[in-house]
Design goal:
Shape: globular
CATH architecture: 3-Layer(aba) Sandwich
Number of strands: 7
Largest sheet: 5 strands, parallel
Order of helices and strands: EHEHHEHHEEEHHEH
Strand content: 5-15%
Helix content: 40-55%
Bound molecules: thymidine-5'-diphosphate
Distance between the termini: 16 Å
């Protein structure tokens, strides 16, 4: 029987602890017989990974940063995400457009309406191979948002690695990013599953599983 493609994104401030749960979910879905594509943004294609290296490490203004995020996204969407969905696979994407609203919108103060315009432009796909559910403006089917106070996230990150341009930001920046996620979630509540990430890992994992099971995908 042909399976429906499913597009799941994972969001949260730096240090929210997404990675281990993305891996665990990929494994659970594979055990359930699904083909899973694990990918990330910015990145996911050779071109978008080059853009990632620039966006995370070179100084630039907020508009340049925003345009680079969307340029990387367009390439990733057309080269990897849409074809995988059309094949009936599950795409697990570490960050997607909500990160642009949260980081460039909330964090950098870039205006929300312009972001919506760029979102529509970059994510509209009319490729004949796209499946019906993922044509027009492509959005994740489900976004799992790992929410936690920035102070807790900063504690988790402390000393683990050399920070990139975003991780090096002060607490106030992450408060604004968190508010950006909250705004996005309130605008599209059906797509978002907010998970309290300030809990033991096992409890967070149960919540992640629950969000996917509630949709009948696991
Ligand atoms: P992240 O996903 O946290 O990867 P890693 O775990 O390897 O550090 O890093 C990506 C960074 O890029 C993160 O700080 C958020 C930022 N970002 C944006 O500012 N806008 C975006 O649209 C995306 C996708 C990411």
């Amino acid at each position: 029987m042909a399976q429906h493609g499913r597009f799941i994104s994972f969001e949260g401030i730096d240090g929210a602890g997404k990675s281990t749960h993305i891996e665990a979910l990929a494994q659970a879905l594979r055990e359930a017989g699904r083909t899973v594509v694990r990918t990330r943004e910015p990145g996911g294609t050779p071109l978008a990974e080059k853009i990632r290296a620039l966006a995370l490490h070179e100084a630039m203004d907020a508009l340049t940063e925003t345009l680079l995020m969307f340029a990387a996204r367009r390439d990733h969407l057309t080269q990897v995400i849409v074809p995988a969905l059309a094949r009936g696979e599950v795409v697990l994407c570490d960050r997607f457009t909500d990160a642009t609203f949260a980081y460039q919108g909330g964090g950098r103060g870039f205006d929300w309406e312009s972001l919506s315009l760029l979102e529509r432009l970059a994510q509209t796909v009319q490729a004949p191979e796209a499946d019906l559910a993922h044509k027009g403006m492509v959005q994740p089917d489900l976004t799992i948002w790992f929410d936690l106070p920035p102070a807790v996230a900063a504690e988790r990150l402390a000393g683990t690695r050399v920070p990139d341009r975003f991780e090096a930001q002060p607490a106030a920046f992450f408060e604004a990013v968190r508010a950006g996620y909250a705004r996005r979630a309130s605008q599209q509540p059906a797509r978002f599953a907010r998970i309290d990430a300030d809990q033991p890992r096992e409890a967070v994992w149960r919540a992640v599983q629950g969000a996917v099971q509630a949709r009948g995908w696991l």
